[in-house]
UniProtKB/TrEMBL annotation:
Residue intervals of the AraC effector-binding domain: 7-157
Protein name: GyrI-like domain-containing protein
Family annotation (InterPro entries): AraC_E-bd, Cass2, Reg_factor_effector_dom_sf
UniProt xrefs under Pfam families: Cass2 (PF14526)
Length: 161
């Protein structure tokens, strides 16, 4: 399979809600990461087929919450509804929120975070912290590629809130 091209480091805003089903892991921050994130993504990959109402089995959503001491990191699939939640998993809805979005790859994710926060500052956007929202990393699984496409979404305050 060929690597689907995304414009790397393209920044924009989007407004969306998400219904997600998956698993999570909490670990010390920053010492427990990225190991904890990789661990839960690997565990979830073995079980993602159990989510029968997933919109796309090849797109992994990883919302996270961090207070600088510890972080909870999720591995999820987007679903049509929250009726069927496999045992040991959690289902939740992230309400309609405006996000600053940047495209990158698994190898450029660190640089992408620097760039998205720089872009947000230039545009006058403020990050919305834990108020009915959380940042999301979206991974596009592809076989036989050196690096996979990733999108990073940072919730921002709407001036109309």
């Amino acid at each position: 399979m060929e690597n689907k091209t995304m414009i790397q480091f393209h920044c924009e805003t989007i407004r969306r809600e998400y219904q997600l089903v998956g698993q999570s892991l909490t670990a010390n921050f920053p010492n427990g990461f990225p190991d904890a994130a990789l661990q839960i993504q690997s565990q979830f990959a073995e079980r993602r087929h159990e989510i029968t109402n997933a919109k796309d089995q090849e797109v992994l959503f990883s919302p996270y919450m961090c207070n600088g001491i510890f972080a909870t990191y999720f591995a999820c699939l987007e679903v049509d509804d929250l009726i069927l939640i496999p045992h040991g998993m959690i289902g939740f809805k992230l309400p309609n929120v405006t996000y600053a979005k940047i495209n990158c790859t698994t190898k450029t994710i660190g640089e992408a975070y620097s760039r998205i926060f720089e872009w947000m500052k230039e545009k006058g956007y403020e990050q919305k912290f834990l108020d009915q929202s959380c940042p999301i990393e979206i991974y596009y699984f592809e076989e036989n590629v050196e690096e996979e496409n990733v999108e990073i979404l940072i919730p921002i305050r709407d001036f109309i809130e």
